Fold Phosphatase PAP2 family protein.
Amino acid sequence: MGDATVRTPERRAEAVPHPVPEGTGRGLVRRLRAPRRPRLWFEILLIAVSYWTYSLIRNAVPEQRSQALRNADWIWRVEQQLGIAVEESVNHAVNSVTWLIIGMNYYYATLHFVVTLGVLVWLYRSHPGRYAATRLVLFATTGVALVGYYLYPLAPPRLMNGEHFIDTVMVHQTWGSMASGDLKNMSNQYAAMPSMHIGWSLWCGLTIFALASVPWVRVLGLLYPALTLVVIVATANHFWLDAVGGLMCLAFGYAVAALWYGKLPYALPRVVAARRRAWLPTRA
């Protein structure tokens, strides 16, 4: 007979695999990456503080008027060479329909915030497992946009010299933009590149399209950024290329989330299972 291996209770306890403590570096990273159910009070506080910080930094960027106007002239020339410089024609055409341009002014001023917050609330309630990762996309997109505002000041078309763009808010006396009229001092006038109206609306649209179960709602999700693109051009707040900048920022945001979570946010579980504590056997 072969030798029998006798295990004492002490040796059996030593043979039990011990999980990596959450306090270690590897355990902490794993814990942060794991989808979890969001906490309402924390999310409200985080969004409020983040938007306040974003506004503070965006408006603290020096308003480099001369450079911003030179950059606008350069953008306009590039678009003319590419054959896509139709912003002025769109601006004048839509401005000739009073009810339409007034509606677009209010669209520009309000839906940018209302729809984005609405999608965040919907994610929180219906897709808690995907909420944190999708929110990370939005935050990373906005964060890299701040770098763009600092490095590349750009005047919107309505502020260009020597062109004939119409500032539709001033003409129609509507509260359509915080960069015009009585509210112009509350916002950096030369932070047009990239367009976060496009970055945020695309984030909303893609999220709705990927996660909504009702077909017509998914279609609306795709129409929202398309309509936003028309609005930002018709109101002379952005060039087409500003929208391209917003798209690139959004791509960066998705890349950050995919690297952190190992997959795109929409591929994560819809709900988060209740966390369990692993109790190790104790010796008497």
Summary: Residues 67-267 form one domain.
